[in-house]
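ESCALATION

Customer reports they have been waiting on this structure for their group meeting. Please prioritize. Original submission:
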Amino acid sequence: MPPIDVRGVRFFVDETSLGVGRALALLRRDVIHTNHPLIPEVPLGSLDDDWIPKVAARDLVVITRDKRIRTKHAKAMLYAAHKARVFWIAGKRDLSNWDTMCLLTRRWEDIEREIKEHGPGPWFMAINDSKLKEMQIHGRTS
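Update from on-call: job pushed to the front of the queue and completed.
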């Protein structure tokens, strides 16, 4: 397989889903993750204040399973301030990497459709078993 062209990268999986990000990067040429060689400015352990602006500046769509995204208002506002497009792997239970991969695979066409329909950020979408749902954060719909 030829080397990945950085211009074709569209998605970034954060450290909360690193195993899934690594698997997706092997399966899809448009996915990178924390500590990926194509984004050396986002090593393991990067703080939100450091990596979110860098990823958003590249116009990458973020995939995260940060369980506290609804309560970490500073992080949500950081995403919004940098006009990030975010898909949050939602649910009441913590999914294994395998279950997360299965969920993303089932919802991938929906993810692509939402990216086209919503256009530029900021916006936030929750991914669950049955559908994607726009999230309201801090009293605003993104």
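Sent to customer with the following note: The chain has one domain: 11-134.
Escalation resolved.
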